[in-house]
Design brief:
Elements: H1 6-15, E1 28-29, H2 34-42, H3 49-55, E2 56-61, H4 67-75, E3 78-83, H5 89-95, E4 102-106, H6 114-121, E5 127-133, H7 139-148, E6 156-161, H8 162-168, H9 179-187, E7 188-196, E8 201-202, E9 209-216, H10 227-239, H11 245-252, H12 258-269, H13 281-298
Parallel strand pairs: 2-3, 2-5, 3-4, 5-6
Antiparallel strand pairs: 1-8, 6-9, 7-9
Length: 299
Protein backbone atom coordinates (compact mmCIF):
# COMPACT_ATOMS: atom_id res chain seq x y z
CA UNK A 1 0.00 0.00 0.00
CA UNK A 2 1.37 3.41 -1.00
CA UNK A 3 1.38 5.61 2.09
CA UNK A 4 3.42 8.39 0.47
CA UNK A 5 0.44 9.71 -1.48
CA UNK A 6 -1.47 12.35 0.45
CA UNK A 7 -4.75 11.42 -1.23
CA UNK A 8 -4.27 7.78 -0.29
CA UNK A 9 -3.54 8.66 3.34
CA UNK A 10 -6.64 10.86 3.55
CA UNK A 11 -8.78 8.10 2.05
CA UNK A 12 -7.38 5.60 4.53
CA UNK A 13 -8.14 7.89 7.47
CA UNK A 14 -11.65 8.57 6.17
CA UNK A 15 -12.27 4.86 5.59
CA UNK A 16 -11.85 4.22 9.30
CA UNK A 17 -13.42 7.48 10.42
CA UNK A 18 -10.30 8.86 12.06
CA UNK A 19 -8.28 12.08 11.77
CA UNK A 20 -4.81 13.31 12.63
CA UNK A 21 -4.67 14.43 16.24
CA UNK A 22 -2.78 17.57 17.20
CA UNK A 23 -2.83 16.46 20.86
CA UNK A 24 -0.71 13.44 19.88
CA UNK A 25 1.61 15.52 17.72
CA UNK A 26 0.64 13.53 14.63
CA UNK A 27 2.35 14.59 11.41
CA UNK A 28 2.48 11.57 9.10
CA UNK A 29 5.35 11.19 6.65
CA UNK A 30 4.17 11.26 3.01
CA UNK A 31 7.58 11.52 1.36
CA UNK A 32 8.70 8.58 -0.81
CA UNK A 33 12.40 9.07 0.02
CA UNK A 34 12.62 10.25 3.64
CA UNK A 35 11.30 7.05 5.30
CA UNK A 36 13.76 5.03 3.20
CA UNK A 37 16.65 7.24 4.35
CA UNK A 38 15.63 7.10 8.01
CA UNK A 39 15.22 3.32 8.02
CA UNK A 40 18.57 2.79 6.32
CA UNK A 41 20.31 5.23 8.68
CA UNK A 42 18.92 3.41 11.71
CA UNK A 43 21.09 0.39 10.96
CA UNK A 44 24.62 0.34 12.28
CA UNK A 45 26.96 1.43 9.49
CA UNK A 46 29.04 -1.72 9.94
CA UNK A 47 26.02 -4.01 9.56
CA UNK A 48 25.04 -5.23 6.10
CA UNK A 49 21.42 -5.43 5.07
CA UNK A 50 21.55 -9.25 5.01
CA UNK A 51 23.00 -9.41 8.52
CA UNK A 52 20.39 -6.95 9.75
CA UNK A 53 17.53 -9.07 8.46
CA UNK A 54 18.93 -12.09 10.31
CA UNK A 55 20.01 -10.46 13.55
CA UNK A 56 18.50 -7.00 14.08
CA UNK A 57 15.26 -5.86 15.64
CA UNK A 58 13.87 -2.36 15.98
CA UNK A 59 11.40 -0.61 18.25
CA UNK A 60 9.51 2.12 16.45
CA UNK A 61 7.94 4.81 18.60
CA UNK A 62 4.71 5.98 17.03
CA UNK A 63 3.81 3.99 13.94
CA UNK A 64 1.24 6.46 12.67
CA UNK A 65 -0.29 4.97 9.52
CA UNK A 66 2.85 2.91 8.96
CA UNK A 67 4.88 4.87 6.40
CA UNK A 68 8.21 4.49 8.19
CA UNK A 69 7.19 1.08 9.54
CA UNK A 70 6.96 -0.32 6.01
CA UNK A 71 10.56 0.63 5.29
CA UNK A 72 11.78 -0.75 8.61
CA UNK A 73 10.09 -4.07 7.84
CA UNK A 74 12.17 -4.35 4.67
CA UNK A 75 15.42 -4.11 6.63
CA UNK A 76 14.80 -5.71 10.02
CA UNK A 77 14.01 -9.22 11.13
CA UNK A 78 11.36 -7.82 13.46
CA UNK A 79 9.68 -4.44 13.95
CA UNK A 80 7.75 -3.70 17.14
CA UNK A 81 5.89 -0.39 17.08
CA UNK A 82 4.67 1.27 20.27
CA UNK A 83 1.72 3.46 19.27
CA UNK A 84 -0.39 5.61 21.61
CA UNK A 85 -3.38 6.18 19.32
CA UNK A 86 -5.59 3.10 19.36
CA UNK A 87 -7.90 4.54 16.69
CA UNK A 88 -5.13 3.72 14.20
CA UNK A 89 -5.46 -0.02 14.92
CA UNK A 90 -7.75 -0.88 11.96
CA UNK A 91 -5.51 1.12 9.61
CA UNK A 92 -2.36 -0.68 10.76
CA UNK A 93 -4.16 -4.03 10.61
CA UNK A 94 -4.97 -3.37 6.95
CA UNK A 95 -1.58 -1.96 5.99
CA UNK A 96 0.35 -4.83 7.60
CA UNK A 97 -2.14 -7.62 7.01
CA UNK A 98 0.42 -9.65 5.05
CA UNK A 99 3.59 -8.49 6.82
CA UNK A 100 4.95 -11.24 9.04
CA UNK A 101 7.64 -9.23 10.88
CA UNK A 102 5.53 -6.32 12.16
CA UNK A 103 3.85 -6.07 15.56
CA UNK A 104 2.13 -3.10 17.15
CA UNK A 105 1.64 -2.53 20.87
CA UNK A 106 -0.83 0.18 21.80
CA UNK A 107 0.72 1.95 24.76
CA UNK A 108 2.40 5.14 25.93
CA UNK A 109 6.15 4.70 25.40
CA UNK A 110 6.85 6.71 28.56
CA UNK A 111 4.75 4.25 30.58
CA UNK A 112 6.16 1.15 28.91
CA UNK A 113 8.76 -1.02 30.62
CA UNK A 114 11.22 -0.80 27.76
CA UNK A 115 13.61 -3.28 29.33
CA UNK A 116 10.91 -5.94 29.67
CA UNK A 117 9.74 -5.20 26.15
CA UNK A 118 13.16 -5.77 24.62
CA UNK A 119 13.69 -8.93 26.65
CA UNK A 120 10.35 -10.43 25.61
CA UNK A 121 10.34 -9.37 21.95
CA UNK A 122 14.02 -9.50 21.00
CA UNK A 123 15.55 -12.31 23.03
CA UNK A 124 18.65 -13.55 21.21
CA UNK A 125 18.87 -10.63 18.78
CA UNK A 126 22.39 -9.28 18.29
CA UNK A 127 21.20 -5.76 17.59
CA UNK A 128 18.24 -3.77 18.92
CA UNK A 129 17.62 -0.27 17.61
CA UNK A 130 15.19 2.56 18.18
CA UNK A 131 13.68 4.47 15.26
CA UNK A 132 10.97 7.10 15.36
CA UNK A 133 9.31 10.15 13.94
CA UNK A 134 8.89 11.57 17.44
CA UNK A 135 6.04 13.90 18.35
CA UNK A 136 7.73 17.16 19.28
CA UNK A 137 6.09 17.40 22.71
CA UNK A 138 7.67 14.17 23.98
CA UNK A 139 11.11 14.51 22.38
CA UNK A 140 13.20 15.26 25.47
CA UNK A 141 11.31 12.95 27.89
CA UNK A 142 11.52 10.06 25.40
CA UNK A 143 15.23 10.44 24.68
CA UNK A 144 15.91 10.78 28.40
CA UNK A 145 13.86 7.69 29.17
CA UNK A 146 15.59 5.60 26.52
CA UNK A 147 19.10 6.60 27.59
CA UNK A 148 18.38 5.98 31.26
CA UNK A 149 16.58 2.67 30.64
CA UNK A 150 19.68 0.52 30.92
CA UNK A 151 18.90 -1.17 27.58
CA UNK A 152 21.94 -1.41 25.28
CA UNK A 153 20.49 -0.08 22.06
CA UNK A 154 22.82 -0.15 19.10
CA UNK A 155 21.41 3.02 17.57
CA UNK A 156 18.70 5.53 18.42
CA UNK A 157 17.59 7.30 15.24
CA UNK A 158 14.80 9.84 15.61
CA UNK A 159 13.27 12.72 13.74
CA UNK A 160 12.71 15.75 15.95
CA UNK A 161 12.27 19.51 15.71
CA UNK A 162 15.29 21.16 14.08
CA UNK A 163 15.80 23.60 16.95
CA UNK A 164 15.92 20.76 19.48
CA UNK A 165 18.36 18.86 17.26
CA UNK A 166 20.62 21.92 17.24
CA UNK A 167 20.65 21.94 21.05
CA UNK A 168 21.36 18.24 21.30
CA UNK A 169 24.23 18.42 18.80
CA UNK A 170 25.70 21.75 19.94
CA UNK A 171 29.38 22.34 20.60
CA UNK A 172 30.74 23.84 23.82
CA UNK A 173 30.75 27.63 23.66
CA UNK A 174 27.79 27.88 21.26
CA UNK A 175 24.47 29.52 22.06
CA UNK A 176 22.60 26.21 21.74
CA UNK A 177 24.92 24.33 24.12
CA UNK A 178 23.20 23.43 27.37
CA UNK A 179 22.48 20.83 30.03
CA UNK A 180 20.50 18.59 27.63
CA UNK A 181 23.51 18.56 25.27
CA UNK A 182 25.74 17.29 28.05
CA UNK A 183 23.16 14.78 29.27
CA UNK A 184 22.92 13.11 25.86
CA UNK A 185 26.70 13.25 25.34
CA UNK A 186 27.18 11.45 28.63
CA UNK A 187 25.34 8.43 27.27
CA UNK A 188 26.30 8.41 23.61
CA UNK A 189 27.79 10.01 20.53
CA UNK A 190 25.21 12.16 18.78
CA UNK A 191 25.15 13.44 15.22
CA UNK A 192 22.71 15.26 12.99
CA UNK A 193 22.00 13.39 9.75
CA UNK A 194 19.72 15.61 7.65
CA UNK A 195 16.85 18.09 7.72
CA UNK A 196 13.28 17.36 6.64
CA UNK A 197 11.10 20.28 5.40
CA UNK A 198 7.42 20.54 6.46
CA UNK A 199 6.24 19.61 2.94
CA UNK A 200 7.17 15.98 3.65
CA UNK A 201 4.36 15.57 6.19
CA UNK A 202 0.58 15.45 6.40
CA UNK A 203 -0.49 17.69 7.95
CA UNK A 204 2.66 19.80 7.49
CA UNK A 205 4.14 21.05 10.79
CA UNK A 206 5.03 24.71 11.17
CA UNK A 207 8.73 23.98 11.64
CA UNK A 208 11.53 22.07 9.94
CA UNK A 209 12.49 18.70 11.36
CA UNK A 210 15.89 17.04 11.66
CA UNK A 211 16.92 13.41 11.84
CA UNK A 212 19.52 12.72 14.52
CA UNK A 213 21.27 9.57 15.59
CA UNK A 214 22.65 8.60 18.99
CA UNK A 215 25.21 5.81 19.21
CA UNK A 216 25.12 4.78 22.89
CA UNK A 217 28.45 4.12 24.58
CA UNK A 218 29.24 0.80 26.20
CA UNK A 219 30.17 2.93 29.22
CA UNK A 220 29.50 6.65 29.75
CA UNK A 221 32.38 8.73 28.38
CA UNK A 222 32.87 10.62 31.66
CA UNK A 223 33.48 8.99 35.04
CA UNK A 224 31.79 10.98 37.80
CA UNK A 225 32.02 9.56 41.29
CA UNK A 226 28.47 10.77 41.88
CA UNK A 227 26.37 10.93 38.69
CA UNK A 228 23.50 12.85 40.30
CA UNK A 229 25.92 15.41 41.70
CA UNK A 230 27.52 15.92 38.29
CA UNK A 231 24.17 16.66 36.72
CA UNK A 232 23.36 19.02 39.58
CA UNK A 233 26.56 20.91 38.78
CA UNK A 234 25.64 20.98 35.08
CA UNK A 235 22.10 22.20 35.71
CA UNK A 236 23.39 24.92 38.02
CA UNK A 237 25.83 26.08 35.36
CA UNK A 238 23.09 26.60 32.77
CA UNK A 239 20.18 27.80 34.90
CA UNK A 240 21.80 31.23 35.00
CA UNK A 241 23.86 31.34 31.80
CA UNK A 242 24.91 34.98 32.21
CA UNK A 243 26.68 34.20 35.46
CA UNK A 244 30.21 32.92 35.67
CA UNK A 245 30.45 29.27 36.64
CA UNK A 246 31.77 30.23 40.08
CA UNK A 247 28.76 32.46 40.80
CA UNK A 248 26.31 29.88 39.42
CA UNK A 249 27.76 27.10 41.56
CA UNK A 250 27.94 29.35 44.62
CA UNK A 251 24.17 29.84 44.33
CA UNK A 252 23.54 26.11 44.00
CA UNK A 253 26.03 24.94 46.65
CA UNK A 254 25.55 27.41 49.46
CA UNK A 255 27.28 25.11 51.95
CA UNK A 256 30.60 25.49 50.10
CA UNK A 257 32.58 28.69 50.51
CA UNK A 258 32.60 30.71 47.31
CA UNK A 259 36.37 31.11 47.42
CA UNK A 260 36.71 27.34 47.52
CA UNK A 261 34.41 26.98 44.51
CA UNK A 262 36.58 29.51 42.69
CA UNK A 263 39.62 27.43 43.55
CA UNK A 264 38.02 24.26 42.21
CA UNK A 265 36.94 25.92 38.95
CA UNK A 266 40.37 27.44 38.42
CA UNK A 267 42.06 24.12 39.19
CA UNK A 268 40.04 22.30 36.53
CA UNK A 269 39.69 25.00 33.87
CA UNK A 270 42.55 27.41 34.53
CA UNK A 271 40.09 30.32 34.58
CA UNK A 272 38.02 31.30 37.62
CA UNK A 273 35.92 33.64 35.45
CA UNK A 274 34.86 31.05 32.90
CA UNK A 275 31.19 30.45 32.09
CA UNK A 276 29.65 27.02 32.20
CA UNK A 277 28.88 26.96 28.49
CA UNK A 278 32.63 26.69 27.76
CA UNK A 279 33.14 23.40 29.62
CA UNK A 280 32.94 19.92 28.17
CA UNK A 281 31.51 16.92 29.97
CA UNK A 282 34.84 15.71 31.35
CA UNK A 283 35.51 19.03 33.08
CA UNK A 284 32.08 19.05 34.67
CA UNK A 285 32.75 15.51 35.92
CA UNK A 286 36.11 16.60 37.34
CA UNK A 287 34.53 19.53 39.20
CA UNK A 288 31.77 17.34 40.62
CA UNK A 289 34.34 14.74 41.74
CA UNK A 290 36.18 17.32 43.84
CA UNK A 291 32.92 18.54 45.36
CA UNK A 292 31.91 14.92 46.05
CA UNK A 293 35.17 14.16 47.86
CA UNK A 294 34.96 17.31 49.94
CA UNK A 295 31.37 16.51 50.90
CA UNK A 296 32.47 13.04 52.02
CA UNK A 297 35.29 14.51 54.11
CA UNK A 298 32.74 16.60 56.00
CA UNK A 299 30.85 13.47 57.12
Amino acid sequence: MNLTNIRGVKELLNKYNTVTKKSFGQNFLISPSIPVKIAAASLNATTTETEANNEAGVIEIGAGVGTLSQELCKLYKKVVAVELDRTLEPILNEVFENTHNFKVIFADILKTDIKSLTESEFNGYKQINICANLPYYITTPTITYLLESGVKFNTITVMIQKEVASRLCAEAGSEDYGSITLFVNYYGEIKKLFNVPPSNFYPPPKVTSSVIQILPYERPRATPEDEKLMFKVIRAAFEQRRKTLVNALASAFGDIDKSRIAGIVEEITGNANIRGEMLNLEKFAAISNIISRENQNKL
